[in-house]
Amino acid sequence: MELFFQFLSNTGYYLADYRQLIMIVIGSFFLYLGTAKKYEPLLLVPIGFGVLVGNVPFFKGFGLGIYESNSVLHYLYFGVTTGLYPSIVFLGLGAMTDFSSLLARPSLMLLGAAAQMGIFFTLLSALALGYLPKEAASIAIIGGADGPTSIFLCAKLAPHLIGPVAIAAYSYMALIPVIQPPIMRLLTTREERLIRMPEPREVSKQELILFPVAAVLLCCFLAPASIPLLGMFFFGNFLKECGVTERLAQTARTAIIDTATILLGLTVGASTQGDVFLTPKSVGIFILGAVAFSIATGSGVIFAKIMNLFLKEKINPLLGAAGVSAVPGSAREVHLVGQAEDPENFLLMHAMACNSSGVIGSAICAGILWSFMVVL
Amino acid sequence: MYGLEAISTHNGWAMAVAGVIIVFCGLVVLSTTIGQLHKVLRLFNGGAKDYQNGKDLRRADGTEGAPASDPTMKHKLAESTRQFRLVSDRIGEPFPLPKLIERAELSGLFRPHSTINDLLKAGLIVPDGKGYFFWKQ
Fold this sequence. Notes:
The complex is a heterodimer. By secondary structure, chain A is mainly α. Chain A has helices spanning about 1-10, 10-15, 20-35, 40-55, 70-80, 85-95, 100-105, 110-115, 115-130, 135-140, 145-155, 160-175, 175-185, 190-195, 205-220, 225-240, 245-270, 275, 280-310, 330-340, 350-375. In chain A, helix 5 crosses helix 17, helix 11 packs parallel to helix 21 (about 350-375) and helix 12 (about 160-175) packs across helix 19. Chain A is globular, with a radius of gyration of 21 Å. Chain B has helices at about 5-10, 10-60, 70-90, 95-105, 110-120, and strands spanning about 125, 135. At the A-B interface, helix 8, helix 9, helix 15 and helix 21 of A face helix 1, helix 2 and helix 4 of B.
């Protein structure tokens, strides 16, 4: 009988804490959003399930939890804490990105730069709210709207915040259809939304091959700390474009990125344990994340309007909202908002150009912030 | 420590300003470089003479295009122009390219994308700068 009671006292039912139950509800909600509502299912489903797995109560010391050094989840979590999974995801992203629309109109890259203002504004806000500099940088990178970049920087600077930062980043990426359109409509007039973009010029294969080489050298010489991300990103793109490594590119954009996404999502979700996640700091991270996202969207749109003051051939300012790194969600939203005004206005490929430059911009910002924090 | 004092203590202002400047400069340099890439490649591939021809054509009508100097090509272009003008007359000028392609497909014209591409390169269809196109007179 004593043995039986001892067994019962080691079950999750006995050890359950109200915070774990709250996290299980949150994880279930993510699963619902991902499966029923189809909000970024490739991200929310692994994260949601990871939250469920990570918040099952257990007896500490048996090597079960993600933070226990000899557990399976801990070994899988290694890829998050070292920045391995984000780099692999970027390899796959590069192998599936088509830069032809960006190469046809390189000026759209400036919109990607402008959208990164959200990162630095949030850095100041986080410092003002009392977060330490490394924590503030880890929170600020949420404004780049790039999950792997956020996790990468957070793992380097503030590993104890990976859970809330990753959840915030991916949640807001999933909520792009809710967050961005009102900001786009608020900051633009109907006349501006009706602007049609000229047809892009044809881009040669040689340009597509040379671009990743030139870009990796230019960007990584500027911010060497972005080598793990941008090096892999442009390597993946070169595999795709060079034409002689199609098999490798195909593997990178299918099996490899899918494996990394599964393990990244699951372990990040499992790391969000109730006692770590449900704190005032996490609430602050969520609020700052929303601010970062909104500022990033708004600054991209406003910069596009500023550019139009100097351009003879105006650009549609909605494209500024696609300067965030959330590929292809924000490009899709820009296209839909443009089509709502004019069904024959096709902004998608132009928006993808801004989106692609946002990926580059946010990775550069991560490198810059990491460099700053190393110096501090 | 909170507020502006915290920002100043942790060099927040310097980090924000420097970060903005660095990321902007980096992407400006990158966009400038890739903006020149196709010109450098054209120079490298075709020589200075072809580059000058391309420049002259762009100056003349604001579009890029190779001169249709081959007689067979000229005849093909003339025939394509005639056929596509008949299609575009139903749409009116200026016309959107997707609509022209759609109408051309419905009319049974062969390979409309490729033909329109040739007409664009030859400078016979030119953009009006607002996303629409018209025939060069």
